[in-house]
Amino acid sequence: MAKINTCIFISGTGTNLKKILLNSNNYNFPIKIKLIVSNKKDAKGIVLAKKWSIPVLIINKSSIINEEKTLKILKDYNVSLILLAGYMKILSKKFLRSFGRKILNIHPSLLPKFKGLNTFERMLKAKEKSCGCTVHYVNDKLDAGKIVLKKYFFISKTDNFLTLKKKTQLLEHKAYSEAIYRIFMYS
Ligand code: GRF
Fold first, then answer.
1. How far is the CA of 85 from the centre of ligand 1 (A)?
2. Would the pTM count as exceeding 0.90?
3. In this predicted model, what pLDDT tens digit does every residue of 35-62 receive, in sequence order?
4. 107 CB less than 6 Å from ligand 1?
5. What is the DSSP secondary-structure string of the chain?
């Protein structure tokens, strides 16, 4: 099976990155991680990339030059899918248009509820009954692209910011790979 050349964009710990890397090692998993892009030079996920001998591109300024440079490198690596995994910067409309291929993101809420930052704090304040994550396509509006899948759990009285975060991340680690599988195995 020809795997889809993929680049993962990160800014932090990289637990989603780790899970996807592990799954991509599986013969039947439809993608191959060719490159990792980080906008933070000390993102923990970079250590992981090095361990797996995957090239890392660090882009630490939000300039157009950086986006152009990134696009060129994505082209050099023949990347046709970008996965945003905890990438904390917004990609410009120009970047989305120029890349012109699929870009996915994972978001820690049940979209369309709680777009943007500080999702768990806002959920607790709103006394939400359920919490979870969403994998969606990226478009030029924040957390608003077509939804691929959601996973949820019920919030209990004893839940707080940390437990919501932990439970959501466990779901994310399943959801991202499941979404990739769903999109590419039958297309
Ligand atoms: C995830 O919770 C994701 O939903 C959010 O950023 C976090 C990244 O975590 N966008 P990690 O770097 O994959 O551990």
1. 6
2. yes
3. 999 999 999 999 999 999 999 999 876 5
4. yes
5. -PPEEEEEEESS--HHHHHHHHHHTSTT-SEEEEEEEESSTT-THHHHHHHTT--EEE--S--HHHHHHHHHHHHHTT--EEEESS--SPPPHHHHHHH-SEEEEEESS-TTSS-SS-HHHHHHHTT-SEEEEEEEE--SSTT-SPEEEEEEEEPPTT--HHHHHHHHHHHHHHHHHHHHHHHHHT-
